[in-house]
């Protein structure tokens, strides 16, 4: 098998959601080591998404036209087609929108005719391109993901909300409702947004593939895994995933805590991989004459570049390079270095070591046994309230379902229905409004502390599947306690479908257990979730309020 064929097969599997673990690792390695392959991958996924965008838009128009034809003459005459909400977030195309269109019965019939032409054309293109793209022209994974919900103020919904949501529901299948949220905007200062881009506000969320374009000002972005970036306009940045971004233009400064080691900034020239550091990057010039400057103020970074002898070089604090298409030289960039002064002053970003990673540490167990190697344990709270560990019941490994389930499922199906823990997340059980004893059943992950020290949870995130119309006001909750102590934190994941969390835990002894649970908050409607978090131990004083005082604040909230 040639490298080109293997590459195309990996790209096709990624777009169609057919990557197994080995293929996923192979694709990650390829994209991390070859900027050329990354560019081909971006081109491939963009083409894949563009073709299906035409199909998706046509489907939305068809459904809207059908709904309008079925409605009364007094029904709504002007609707904002939700095509912009169709799942293009992964390639940054999901924010374009189509504007408001006057829709009457006559125009509805015209739209049906137009949609037929678009569908036929797009289908023909897909059939023609399918073999050349290394596999069948299947719909890209996540193509139905909603990407343009107003996360902060969901009450600001057009009067035609029900009609739009019905149309959305026809496009979304049960396995394509994850939003792939990877970052949030944490600060905006004096920003002028680009005319051809979206404007953002503090706390807005970014999906994989979303772009930030500004002509002036500063934007601070916190990635899901913990890295913080400050972008200075004019600039163009694309959020790749929870620990990586692509800088196409402008200046960027970044700081990565220990739990975000490996944070990556790709550019049209060299790519920068963090190794516990604070650094800045400046991309300037035309696309075919791009210059990339990199400077390091703390720690070190690794530079990776195709066809350059400097690929893989390490830069340490005080060092810098200036890179062009054909050359990499030592150099400095005073303006980029100055930008690092705008990074947040958070001692907690540097004063800890990672002890555990819920996502990466995952291991299957022994069939029908609760015990397994390592410090992680999985529970449900059975007939007691969350926080009463004396009644916690440890889950057992179920080989067939590839997850941990209650061991007494057959004895008490009403009690344990739905409870599970798997690689990506899990599902809580019945809620207090659905059972006689009025107790929420939690999916609980426990971690046994290996040594004494001050601990905290960092870079926690909980993502709920996109809500259907009838359960969009239902909520999940995530809560934390240590041993039999009080609940230290409780947050709710509602129609936004995403909530970040972190929590100081105080001084713990070896053998103490940290419990993090996800509950149904009353009823288990659409409660499948994905999540992750890090457990870290402090190495030096945080320089802020003491951990104990932070716990007092958390309890008072």
TrEMBL record:
Domain FecR protein residues, every copy: 216-302
Domain of life, per lineage: Bacteria
GO molecular function: sigma factor antagonist activity
Annotated spans, Disordered: 140-166
Pfam family of the protein (one): FecR
Originating organism: Botrimarina hoheduenensis
InterPro entries (UniProt xref): FecR, Ferrdict_sens_TM
Protein name listed in UniProt: FecR protein
């Amino acid at each position: 098998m040639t490298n080109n064929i293997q590459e195309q097969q990996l790209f096709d599997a990624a777009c169609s959601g057919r990557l197994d673990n080995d293929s996923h690792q192979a694709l990650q390695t390829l994209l991390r080591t070859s900027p050329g392959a990354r560019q081909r991958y971006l081109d491939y996924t963009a083409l894949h998404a563009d073709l299906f965008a035409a199909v998706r838009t046509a489907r939305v128009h068809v459904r809207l036209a059908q709904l309008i034809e079925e409605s009364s003459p007094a029904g709504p005459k002007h609707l904002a087609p939700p095509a912009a909400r169709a799942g293009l977030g992964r390639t940054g195309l999901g924010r374009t929108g189509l504007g408001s269109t006057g829709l009457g019965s006559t125009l509805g019939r015209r739209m049906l005719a137009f949609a037929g032409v678009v569908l036929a054309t797009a289908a023909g293109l897909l059939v023609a391109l399918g073999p050349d793209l290394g596999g069948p022209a299947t719909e890209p994974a996540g193509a139905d993901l909603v990407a343009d919900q107003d996360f902060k103020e969901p009450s600001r919904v057009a009067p035609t909300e029900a009609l739009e949501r019905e149309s959305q529901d026809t496009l979304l299948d049960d396995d394509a409702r994850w939003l792939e949220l990877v970052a949030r905007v944490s600060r905006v200062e004096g920003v002028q947004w680009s005319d051809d881009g979206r404007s953002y506000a503090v706390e807005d969320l970014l999906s994989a593939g979303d772009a930030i374009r500004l002509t002036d000002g500063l934007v601070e972005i916190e990635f899901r895994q913990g890295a913080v970036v400050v972008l200075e306009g004019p600039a163009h940045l694309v959020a790749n995933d929870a620990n990586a971004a692509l800088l196409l233009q402008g200046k960027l400064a970044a700081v990565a805590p220990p739990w975000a080691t490996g944070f990556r900034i790709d550019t049209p020239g060299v790519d920068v991989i963090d190794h516990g550091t604070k650094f800045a990057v400046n991309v300037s010039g035309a696309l075919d004459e791009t210059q990339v400057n990199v400077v390091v103020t703390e720690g070190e970074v690794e530079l990776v570049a195709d066809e350059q002898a400097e690929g893989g070089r390490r830069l340490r604090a005080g060092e810098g390079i200036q890179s062009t298409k054909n050359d990499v030289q030592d150099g400095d960039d005073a303006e980029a270095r100055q930008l690092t002064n705008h990074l947040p002053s958070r001692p907690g970003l540097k004063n800890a070591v990672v002890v555990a990673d819920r996502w990466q540490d995952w291991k299957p167990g022994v069939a029908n046994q609760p015990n397994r190697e390592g410090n992680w344990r999985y529970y449900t709270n059975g007939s007691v309230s969350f926080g009463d560990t004396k009644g916690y019941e440890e889950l057992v490994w179920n080989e067939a379902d590839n997850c941990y389930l209650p061991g007494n499922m057959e004895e008490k199906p009403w009690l344990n229905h739905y409870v599970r823990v798997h690689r990506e997340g899990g599902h809580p059980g019945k809620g207090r409004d659905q059972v006689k004893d009025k107790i929420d059943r939690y999916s609980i992950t426990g971690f046994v502390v290996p040594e004494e020290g001050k601990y905290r949870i960092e870079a926690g995130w909980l993502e709920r599947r996109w809500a259907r119309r009838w359960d969009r006001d239902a909520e999940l909750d995530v809560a934390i306690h240590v041993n039999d102590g009080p609940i230290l934190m409780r947050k709710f994941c509602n129609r936004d479908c995403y909530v970040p969390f972190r929590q100081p835990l105080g001084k713990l002894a070896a053998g103490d257990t940290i419990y993090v649970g996800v509950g149904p908050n009353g009823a288990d409607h659409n409660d499948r979730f994905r999540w992750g978090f890090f457990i870290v131990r402090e190495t030096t004083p945080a320089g802020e309020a003491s951990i104990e005082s932070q716990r007092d604040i958390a309890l008072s909230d």
